[in-house]
Amino acid sequence: MTDDMAISYEAAVRGTPVLSSTGQRIGTLEHVLEVPDLDLFDGLVIATDGGLRFVDADHVGRITRSEIHCGLSDSEAAGLPAPEGPPVYQVEGVRSAGHSLHDTLGRFFGRPHWKRQRD
Known about the structure:
This protein is mostly beta strands. It is about 10% helix and about 35% strand. The chain has helices spanning about 75-80, 100-110; strands at about 15-20, 25-35, 40-50, 50-55, 60-65, 70, 90, 115. The strands form 2 sheets. The chain has a 6-stranded mixed β-sheet. Strand 1 and strand 2 (about 25-35) form a beta hairpin. It is globular and about 50 Å long.
């Protein structure tokens, strides 16, 4: 598979560059919003220089392994709203959990560490 082939939103990877309709990078993928019970793609939360922003599914075009293309102009991308709802949590890699004896033993035994993402 080449990086130019379209992939499902379910296969999108955090950190993938998100581009406007002009090809300008507007941010990177933080996570995909979906309703799994309905198999419904709701949109993307992206990390920008101004913080987290929400891109509605209607504005998301092609998703590939290397890029996510949106139908937003550069000015529309600059005005994206912040995501609404409760904060999202994810497991942070055990290698970066800290330097205390507790953290070191946690890494040794493979215990994950929960970290709150930015709002």
